[in-house]
Design brief:
single chain; alpha+beta; ten-stranded antiparallel beta sheet; 3 helices; 42% strand
Length: 200
């Protein structure tokens, strides 16, 4: 596991979050929604992550950058770059497992994206739900809505997910926060994903 509070630790969280979104497209049946009948094979955009610890040793760290990911029949690949465009990490996920390589040569591997996330970061994120979240399919968790609306909020497996902005009836800005509800003394993680475009 990476040292607590490091920028790379935040990078790993965002990386595997998005990796999970493209690596597990069949993990959950699509709920009715604006994107249920359209196959998306790629996403690109920006992200920011904030890690905060409350209490006497309160501290906060922020990290931001860009992501580009594509899904092919046998593999999913994502590239994470700095705000200025410098590649910081590349990850692959497929039947043979998941692999993450950073710009400084560190390599992490695991049998799945979920295991890789837990090994690198120590938290297990519900990657099986992410494909639907990115495409605006929230099912019964979003009440009676057929699709997302601005300010739609759901809570699933300890994560709070809020749709902050739509484009073409799909989420453009998603805000994720863990844990929900907050727990005293528990480090908190906030993620903002801005999807600038999709590929088919």
């Amino acid at each position: 596991m990476l040292p607590a509070g490091s920028a790379l630790r935040l990078l790993a969280v965002v990386l595997v979050l998005v990796l999970g979104a493209c690596a597990t497209p069949e993990a959950s049946a699509p709920a009715p929604g604006p994107a249920a009948d359209t196959q998306v094979n790629g996403w690109y955009g920006r992200f920011s992550a904030t890690s905060a610890v409350a209490g006497e040793t309160a501290r906060e760290e922020r990290f931001s950058g860009r992501f580009l990911l594509r899904r092919t029949p046998g593999e999913s690949v994502i590239e994470i770059s700095s705000v200025l465009g410098q590649t910081m990490a590349v990850a692959h996920s497929g039947p043979a497992g998941a692999r993450l390589e950073t710009a400084d040569g560190k390599i992490f591997t695991a049998a799945s994206a979920e295991e890789l996330l837990e090994r690198v970061f120590g938290w297990r994120i519900p990657v099986s739900l992410l494909p639907d979240w990115l495409e605006g399919r929230f099912g019964s968790a979003a009440g009676e809505q057929a699709g997302p609306a601005p300010a739609t909020v759901i809570v699933a497996q300890g994560w709070r997910v809020r749709v902050e902005e739509l484009r073409d009836e799909r989420p453009r800005r998603l805000a994720l926060r863990w844990p929900e509800p907050p727990s005293p003394g528990q480090p908190e993680l906030a993620l903002l994903l801005v999807i600038d475009g999709r590929e088919r």
